[in-house]
Design a protein that fits this description.
Layout lengths: L2 H7 L3 H6 L6 H8 L5 H6 L1 H12 L3 E4 L10 H6 L3 E6 L2 H4 L7 E4 L16 E7 L8 H11 E12 L4 H8 L2 H11 L23 H10 L4 E7 L11 H15 L7 E7 L4
Parallel strand pairs: 1-2, 1-4, 2-3, 4-5
Antiparallel strand pairs: 5-7, 6-7
Length: 272
């Protein structure tokens, strides 16, 4: 079993001890062979991060926008051999972070002037469903490059345009968008555990040809865009669910980048 396959299958300090920071980002994903459907991305997000950390020897991990729902508890982070720092722009969100986890308040798309900023201080930076809400994503990627240590890796998991379901969310007035999401997902109503924030979708695309030049401008030596299709928004709508699944299956088979629904965008900073 390969190093990447071993790491994606599970985690543990003994695997961290075996880590060899070698190989490419594309090679990592070729070995773990993600499924085309976005359910794989949701189910394997944590394992993918641990696999990358293992493969490339990364320990100090900053979760961007982690606030109320961090990637791991303190106990899970320790068990997996990582030091987790939870970032958010909002002090109120950071106040909801689990006990024992370190926090850092700064704007990932800002000027990095906040006291909590540590340039070159992280081996890895990760985010889930954050970048679609960021105003100034290209600046955010440049800032991530500034915050990563040499050889550091970042992964951003976000929804993409122009998948029809997200294109609709993008063009509808925010009040209408809120009403639809709240009807489909009660937990995302105001006061729920996963509130809905306005989505801008700046640079939220699944096309490597579009993203890679921007990521290179941000300074990264290597990048990989892992594309996904499909979603769960129509799961309660028999008929429409099957039609949408068939559409996404065809799009995935032909590699239609214009209608990806989600992407993992992974970058690595050079060592020089």
């Amino acid at each position: 079993m390969s190093t990447a396959s071993l790491a994606i299958a599970g985690s543990g300090p003994e695997r961290r001890a075996m880590a060899q920071p070698a190989g490419s980002l594309a090679g990592f994903f070729e070995e773990i062979r993600p499924h085309w459907h976005s359910q794989w991305a949701w189910d394997h997000y944590e394992a993918t991060i641990l696999g990358l950390a293992h493969q490339f020897g990364l320990r100090r991990v900053c979760e961007i926008g982690g606030g109320r729902g961090p990637l791991f508890t303190r106990e899970q982070a320790v068990r997996n051999g990582i030091d987790l720092i939870v970032n958010d722009i909002d002090a109120g969100e950071l106040a909801l972070t689990g006990r024992g986890l370190a926090t850092a308040r700064f704007d990932i798309a800002g000027d990095l002037s906040e006291p909590d900023v540590r340039r070159g201080g992280y081996d890895m930076m990760v985010s889930r469903m954050v970048f679609e809400h960021v105003d100034g994503v290209e600046r955010a990627w440049a800032n991530i490059h500034e915050l990563l240590a040499p050889g550091g890796v970042a992964l951003a998991f976000f929804p993409t345009l122009w998948a029809p379901v997200f294109a609709l969310n993008h063009v509808l007035p925010e009040k209408a968008s809120h009403a639809i999401v709240h009807a489909l997902f009660p937990a995302r109503r105001e006061g729920g555990g996963y509130p809905k924030f306005p989505a801008l979708y700046d640079w939220c695309r699944g096309d490597p040809a579009l993203l890679e030049p921007m990521l290179k401008r941000a300074g990264f030596a290597e990048s990989h865009v892992q594309r996904f299709w499909g979603h769960g928004y129509f799961d309660r709508m028999p008929g429409l669910k099957q039609v949408d699944h068939a559409f996404n299956a065809v799009a995935a088979r032909i590699g239609w980048n214009f209608v990806t629904t989600y992407a993992y965008v992974v970058v690595r900073k050079g060592r020089g």
